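Re: the request from the purification team.
They wanted to know what the chain is likely to look like in 3D before they choose a buffer screen. I agreed to run a prediction and write the result into the notebook, where they can find it.
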Amino acid sequence: MRGYPLLILTTLLLSGCSQGERTMTSKINQGCSDKPNCVSTLESREDYKLEPYVLRAEVNIEQIEHAALQLPGAKTAEKSDDYLRIECTSKIMRFVDDLELKIDGNQLMVRSESRVGYSDFGVNRKRAEQLRTLLSQANLLQ
C-alpha cells in the first residue's frame, strides 16, 4: 500500500515526459484558446497578444531560423519558403512547445503554444520576447 502513491506519482511524471512523435498541423493562422499557455501576433486579447514583429526588407526564413535556433531547447521541426515551426523542449520535464513563424509581407507572424498542460507560467511569452531580442540583435527587425 505504501508503494502505491509512489507508483502513481512516477506514472504521472513519466507520462509528461513521453509525448512521443506527434504530427502537428499548423495553427499559425489561429488565435489562442482560453487556456493561458499561448501567445500570438494575431490575438487581440491582452493576455495572449504579442506586438507585431516588423521585418526589414529582404529578410528570409533562413535568417529567422538562424535566430530562432538560439532559443533554449529549440530545433527545426518543419520549414518551407515562408513558414517555420520550431519545437522548444524544456530541460527538466522535456515538455514540448511549438513556436510557429510565418513571413507575411513585412511582418512576421508569431505563435507560441504549449502542447500539454493548462498554464505555461509565462514561458511562451518569454520565448516570444527572447525571439524578438534575437531578431533585433541580428538586425532583422525595423
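For the purification team: Confidence is low (pLDDT under 50) at residues 15-21.
Please add any questions underneath this entry.
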